[in-house]
Amino acid sequence: MNAPRLPFHKDISRSLTDYHVRLAINDRTVRGLVLNVSGGSQTYAEEVRRIPGNRMVVTDWLSSQTSNRVDVFCDAHVLPFGNDAVDSVLLTEVLEHLADPRQALREAFRVLKQGGALLVTTPFLYQAHQRPFDFFRFTYDGLILIATEAGFRDVSVARRGESFAVGLNALRSFVQQLQLRRYRLPGVPRMLQFAERVYIRRFAHRSLAVPLSRDPMALGYTVVARKPASGASQP
After folding, report:
1. Dist. CA 230–CA 34, nearest whole Å
2. Three-state SS for 211?
3. Which residue(s) pair with 73 in the sheet?
4. What domains does the chain contain, in order, with CATH numbers?
5. Which of 18, 82, 152, 173 is most deeply packed, by most CB within 10 A?
6. For the packed helices 163-180 and 12-26, what is the interaxial angle rounded to 10 degrees?
């Protein structure tokens, strides 16, 4: 199946996040019964269900204000599902907001069927958000560490946005701060949005393949990992 087109949002990180999730759905990494943990703000339900045979269960935390459909309100640290219950787990832009992200990954591991896939997205060089529940930022190596500690294998990490994307995101934040201080910036927000659109359309695909050894900056990361199949060695 062809790769999805990179979506454009005002937030570059969101555009790249959506692209990685859609790519994993299209190539069947995320498939079957999909559990979207704390996914009320962005369910990806339409993208998942358009592929025959896929189903989705969306959870969110008890105080969620989302207007999207949520199937189960619960704590991501203690999921109300049995062992080996789902084929795939999504944790998109959630891990940084959890008091104990290691426990959340252990729960994701528990509810996944053997051979099932986990997809995690999380920001790195990105502004504080959803405060006072913005607790962590994870490095490339740290994500491999905590996923492996939880029992996952075949852990891969993809960067979302290199130096150029980080710079554009920082510039947007700077411009917003100037606007809050009532500085007049005629045409600047529109020029910035044009630059972001050009980046997404012309450069983002190439940026995703740039290795950290060449450019150590990143807006965020996407992790894909699997629960070992029966008979595979476990920690």
Report:
1. 20
2. coil
3. 60
4. 12-226 (3.40.50.150)
5. 152
6. 140
Residue showing tokens 């659109």 = 197
Kindly state the DSSP code that residue 97 receives in the 8-state scheme: G
Measured over the CA atoms of residue 84, residue 138, residue 132 and residue 69, the dihedral's sign is negative
Q: Is 84 helix (H, G, I), strand (E, B) or coil?
A: coil
Q: Which residues, 6+ apart, have CB-to-CB distance to 230 below 8 Å?
A: 114
Which value, in Å, is the radius of gyration of the alpha carbons in the chain?
A: 18
Over residues 140-191, the pLDDT tens digits come to 999 999 999 999 999 999 999 999 999 999 999 999 899 889 888 888 989 9
Asked whether 45 and 60 are in contact (CB, 8 A), the reply is no
Angle between helices 163-180 and 188-198 (to 10 degrees): 160
Prediction pTM value = 0.91
Residue in 45, 37, 117 with CA at minimum distance from that of residue 78: 37
